[in-house]
Amino acid sequence: LIPFPSRAEFDAMYGKRVSAEGRDRYWEMLTKRATGSTLSEAGSSFSLTRERVRQIEMKFLRQMHSAYRKSLASKTD
Q1: pLDDT tens digits, the chain, 77 residues: what are they?
Q2: Is the pTM above the cut of 0.85?
């Protein structure tokens, strides 16, 4: 398993592609999901559907996987 990133690592992953407000929302939503909240619970405070939360979560997981692969590759070089 890949450990959940720190807030600084999370912000660096999203960089300038997502506004600071958007990163705050994503951070809160994804930490809720990481601690066992359902898709509905994680999206309710942002008026997001379960499907939208799932999409955001899947994109985040793909980015985490990519960052993890890059860190492994740099360690072997």
Answers
A1: 667 888 998 888 877 778 888 889 999 999 999 999 999 999 999 999 999 999 999 998 888 888 788 877 887 76
A2: no
